Amino acid sequence: MSGQKPEIPAKKKPRYLELADQLREEVLRGDYPDPGDFPTESVLCKKFDVSRFTVREALRKLMSEGLISRKRGSGTIVQPATARAGALHQPLSNVGEIMQYARDTTISFERLPAQEIPVKIAEQIGIAPKRKWFVYHGNRLKPGRKRPIAVTVAWINPDLADAVDRIDPDGATLFGQIEEYAQITVNRVTQDIQAIAATKKFAADLGIEEGDPILRILRCFFDENGRLFEISASYHPGERFAYAMHIEVD
Question: 140-157, pLDDT tens digit by residue?
């Protein structure tokens, strides 16, 4: 025997999530130019050969993302683009969804001089802020919008110098490039969301007033050996961000 452990088959995505993915694609593609054109529950059940429960759960997910609205007696209404373009709806429950978020927006990073992790962030995640990490700064944009929806600062572990030297600032996600060039795998991601006041620098980048409330999303990326290899802090103005979390019960 080879001693290799048998592969565990990937868990299949629930049917309602598959349906939500398909309906989301149709909405974003503009298949329903008239807000009232969206199919009824009965039509969706027949079209996709699914139960009414599956349809309702899929629609509930699209509602949480701000793509549709539902009112008794009015059916399902597709939200006009102008009503949903101001906020970034970011459901994140796994690394794949972080990748989708990156694909749906654009960002170009600038590499800054190496620096220590800011004391407050270091204290929050429990590391010593003594070593200088590689630093990247970028403004994240959504297609068709001039103002950035977020400013992101990322710190990369100084042990990964060879991989960092190969990073394309206009390429894929930083953590994705680090995975490829350092031959490591993202094993765990932690995420903390906190409301803070915009500093002068972030206010200027985001086109808001200093002291305005913003959301800071702090993510820590760990590899298969438990090493923290990237820290990213994204700063979002409140009116340009909406967060949705979906919990599946086994």
Answer: 887 777 788 889 999 999
